[in-house]
Amino acid sequence: MTDPALAHRTADVRLVVRTADGTPLRRQEVVVEQTRHAFRFGCIGFDLIGLANGEIDSTPPVFGGASDASAPALADLWLDVFNTVTLPFYWGRFEPERGRPDTARLLRAARWFAERGVEVKGHPLAWHTVAPDWLTDLPVDEVETAVRDRVTRDVTDFAGVVDTWDAINEVVIMPVFDKEPNGLTRLAWDRGRIATVRLAFETARAANPGATLLLNDFDMSTAYECLIEGVLEAGIQVDALGLQSHMHQGYWGEEKTLAILDRFARFGLPLHLTETTLVSGDLMPAHIEDLNDHQVDSWPSTAEGEARQADELVRHYRTLVSHPAVASTTYWGIADEGAWLGAPAGLVRVDGTPKPAYDALRSLVRDQWWHAPTTLVTDDDGAVPVHGFLGDYVVTAGGASATFALAATGDVLDVRLAHAPSTS
Fold first, then answer.
1. Beta-bridge partner residues of 51
2. Is 138 exposed, middle or buried (0-12, 13-18, 19+ CB in 10 A)?
3. pLDDT digit string (tens) for 335-344?
4. CB-side neighbour CA atoms (13 Å) of 80
5. DSSP, residue by residue, 71-132
6. How far is CA 58 from CA 46, 64, 103, 219, in A?
7. How far apart are CA 161 and CA 111, in angstroms?
């Protein structure tokens, strides 16, 4: 059941603050502030891969996104809002030549984000689109072997840095996909959807037993529900369900969004809104069935569109966060520069200036839904009450600090202050 007041996203706890030797810090001022949300506010990080690798080349980025020249300014804006990143592992671009994957470069990017406190997700391990050309004419048995080898290699190589994956993407359409020949479609047609899902999930699970593995799709019809039912009945362990919400043709609205969330929440799995967009220009015509078919020479952002985008983005995020099944949402691109389909779906204009949607989202994440530094006075037991959004916090007093996490109402948290180690 949804709660616009977001009580399920907050907690009230009793924080007992002690000195390093365990003595309660009685009747003293302490400062409590949030450092991270438990909810995953995500965005793709394609634009920042070059920056993480120290690249200054003006050639188009391998995986799309903004230019390397734009990256430093975008990084500051990105890190000021988001705590979860999706990095691109599209097989055809990650390993265009068999046996020569772009592992080192993507690993540097993943570590760059992780060092900044960002949780990293890989997208996707198996997908029929952007598949490598060298896979196309292989016999089905060899395609299966190649998929298994790829999943094992990449999940193993990135374990500990990338521990969340879209294990397989868009399986509903996979066996009947007819836009281009590819090995994954032939595999799914020959083996069936559920067997193909099993291949991706169980191979990834074996490579990293602690990984969070998603089944992800754009198809919000009952076909996806039927697939999920079949996968779960087959005993395949799915950790979360990915729901795509590219709204190039217009905002879904609260009623439709909540109906979709309720339908998929019945499976009892966390919901990740893995791919969200709202455009700040003309809407894509409603008759377009495959968004990739809409090709235009220019798709500008407009003042009217930007106001609409900001309003709809706030409404969409409020709706998602109000639903207890939703654990994560990922916006599909901070910048208009290099955006998918050339759409003005970013939160930052081509000239690098933030749109109203960026400011609106930041206001939600880092202001309205955030515990700013607050001075409190401990009682005779060295305790203070803390109310805030679920996540990570720090308490500071007299130059010493301690970290703690808000996870559940009613908790009594006992922390000891410690001075930061000297860097001299």
1. none
2. middle
3. 999 898 899 9
4. 16
5. HHHHHHHHHTT-SEEEEE--HHHH-SSTT---HHHHHHHHHHHHHTT-EEEEE-SS-STT--
6. 15, 13, 22, 36
7. 6
